[in-house]
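Predict the 3D structure for this chain.
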Amino acid sequence: MGSGAADALFVVYATRDLALPAWQLGTVYATFSVATVLGVLLAGRFAATIGLFRATQICALLAAAAIFLIPAASLGLAYPALIAYQLFFGLTGTVWSISMTTTQQLIAPPHMQGRVAGFVQAALMGTVPAGALAGGALAAWVGNVPVLTGSAATSLLAAGSLWLPQRAGAGAGATAAAPPRSAGLLSEPGPERP
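Done. Predicted structure below.
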């Protein structure tokens, strides 16, 4: 919900409140694209270094924390703050998404893969329009900066839930277990198994 509200307000906030010209807004969005490519390239190596579930936890927190750069842009240096937001959010959000999806695939039994993926996507994507609607309505009432700050706090709380204690084996298996070669994310190229 937090990122849905932030996404819904981003362009209005950047152009009306911060008075960013079109070329700066375009550059801000282009930075996100570059950052996602970097995230794709670094995700496997990062997860192999610290563990798949730990990569999910850390990158979820960093991506959520990056959202605070959006309302912080109103304090001055708006253009650099939004560039930094898109860079950090694009990079860490991409690594989080890849690590989370891979963890999900490793934990879910093969016959449940479709159901688990469908449920996760419905849960994630179902909250985005609700957050956008709530964020837009609240911003019309209290202003963009308080809603964007609340959006960042909501996202950070959601990411923090990944650090709550877990049942034995719920996330630990994904940290310690090496994925099969077919997962491709953490395995190095080598001879194929028979």
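The first helix runs from residue 2 to 17.
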